[in-house]
Amino acid sequence: MSAAHAFLQRLGERADDEPTWVAARRQAGAARFEALGFPTKRDEAWKYTDVRRIAEGEFTLADDAELDEARFAALGMPLDAHRLVFVDGVFSAALSDLTDLPDGVSIEPLTTAMRTNHEAIGGAIGRLAGVDFSPFTALNVALSEEGAVVRIGPGVVVDKPIYVVFASRANESARMSHPRVLVMAGARSQSTVVEHYAGEAGAANFTNVVSEVMLERGAIVDHYKLQEASSEDLHVASIHVEQGRDSRFTSFNLNLGGALVRTDLVTDLNAQGAETNYNGLFFVQGRQHVDNHTLVNHNAPNTFSNENYKGILNDRARGVFNGKVVVKRDSQQIEAYQNNANLLLSDRAEIDTKPELEIYADDVKCSHGATTGQLDEDAVFALRTRGIDEQMARGLLTLAFAGEVMDQVRLPGIAERVERAVAGKLPERFNLSDLVEVSDALEEA
Amino acid sequence: MLEVKDLHVTVEGSEILKGLNLTVNPGEVHALMGPNGAGKSTLSAVIAGKDGYEVTSGEVLFEGKNLLEMEIEERALAGILLGFQYPVEIPGVKNIYLLKAALNAQRVARGEEEIPAPEFMKLVREQLSFMKMDGSFLQRAVNEGFSGGEKKRNEILQMLVLQPKLAMLDEIDSGLDIDAMKVVAEGINSLRNADRAILMVTHYQRLLEHIVPDRVHVLVDGRIVKSGDKNLAHELEARGYEWVLEESAA
Ligand SMILES: Nc1ncnc2c1ncn2[C@@H]1O[C@H](COP(=O)(O)OP(=O)(O)OP(=O)(O)O)[C@@H](O)[C@H]1O
Ligand SMILES: [Mg+2]
């Protein structure tokens, strides 16, 4: 039995009261996945990322969302937010907080949304990321059950961030989940959506999520993906964005955890004035592997993209960055900037970075660059001559490297969380919060 | 306080310091002069502990302790501060972070509590205004995009915050405009007291008009070939190094 087939066994395990067309789509996903199989290193897009750990793993679907408050508090962020929580893919009403939703905003678990409005929701889901994007999206279509559906009406400025937590528990046997996230941002609406993947120590689950974000004319969406899976968790995500006229999408793809992590981020800029900003940061150590594949399609004239990805790699960790920009024929007056910088803290760490530009128009302002280096030893020396010990000096410089991306983060809770996590991954005690406090005090004065 | 005894230092296979002797006592200000390439910055680098300088013989003692065995940061914590000839730009590390981390490292080393934020801010602001520097410098990355003169002022700001026992200032006067020279000199003079010592590398008499040295040394080809009082600096200004070279060759 093939690995793909073994995964699809899980299809039959669930009682099926779905509308037939949903079941049919599931079958299509399954058929597609079975035909494609898991990607191998012979597939160009998976050249550096070996998914055998997933293919050869045995995972079951979770049936419960049990997680007590204390365990949840250890994973989640104390954000003042509208909160949806999933535990190993299963919705937890107890941990969610959807009281006081403003008018014009709906935030629901996928199952609820499908029950009440299956045609509208079912029609939207899969529009940007169907079965053909990758074997994993096909697998997701086959096995997905739950997820988050966010709909924001025209002109609505959502008062608080929308915080979607996917908790991965330390289970006795490994679980898998195939969540969906759907964000439909109405014209001129403004919102912040946080997808937070957090794993308990010892968790060894497989998450295969597909997110779709649709921005209508003039909509503004800040999208955070904060991935803090456990060091044994396997994580595959694909985020697909569609932008209408004058809309603005800003992505923060922040990866700190996981044993094997792959994220695809794809944006279609479909109308004039659309702007997308990709900010990425990953910090990996041990034998972690993080792969980011990003793609911006400039499908319309007068569209703008700006990308800045930074990677910090320690020990024997491995990173992959592939950033592609496609400018369609007749898409004139395009600006597309891309930068990828990587910091190797160990000489056994490795990064493969590849910018790809495909430009079929001539009025295009475009730049890209990729650098990989070590910490500046002159700077380490200069700091040490001021009495700062070597670990601290390296820590400060590592944080400084991450800072350029972190400075763009507009949600203070996240910036602080990531800075602490980065500092916490540094070899020694590092009293960052104290420094930040001083800096803030200064700004206020 | 500082004793350099018959110091021989090799850089990438060639000998740069060739038996250098120098003693600096508490309370003294010494000026180290000499032609380009003589080894002045090499001496500061060796005292600070920079990699790539091989001490083939001789010793350096600081308050009686063997400096050459100490880590770079230990030397700083012992009370030595090097003001760089070319201060390093450190993108992303705010000036304020550096100052706080450095000051706290000192306090922790002395077994004291870390400095509370308000107290720290007060101290830094005072020194900042003493150096006639704008508050925005604190939020900027260390030396990044600073003008030449601003970098030098920033070195002195660090010195004032850290209050070293021995400050080694390498061409702190280069790149300073006339007013900045006064400010920097005032900063340095404010540090002078009976317990501290200052070793200044300079090419010009002008700095020494503001900071009158107790001793002036001429370093030529890896050795101190002549020492004297402040009048030696005047003489060098007037006559150049030729005569010193001739005298030492004789
Ligand atoms: N890393 C190095 N590799 C090779 N030679 C070096 C190195 N560092 C210093 N030197 C050489 O050592 C000699 C002394 O240099 P040093 O910087 O100490 O001179 P200095 O007296 O400070 O000169 P200046 O007045 O120009 O600053 C020079 O000839 C210089 O080229
Ligand atoms: Mg020099």
From TrEMBL, chain A:
PANTHER family: PROTEIN ABCI7, CHLOROPLASTIC (PTHR43575). It comes from the Bacteria. Residues 20-163 form the SUF system FeS cluster assembly SufBD N-terminal domain. It comes from Chromohalobacter sarecensis. This is Fe-S cluster assembly protein SufD. It holds the Pfam family SUFBD_core. Residues 170-401 form the SUF system FeS cluster assembly SufBD core domain. Belongs to the iron-sulfur cluster assembly SufBD family.
From TrEMBL, chain B:
Residues 2-246 form the ABC transporter domain. It holds the Pfam family ABC_tran. It comes from the Bacteria. The keyword ATP-binding applies. SUPFAM superfamilies: P-loop containing nucleoside triphosphate hydrolases. The keyword Transmembrane helix does not apply. Keywords: ATP-binding, Nucleotide-binding. Belongs to the ABC transporter superfamily. Ycf16 family. NCBIfam families: sufC (TIGR01978). This is Fe-S cluster assembly ATPase SufC.
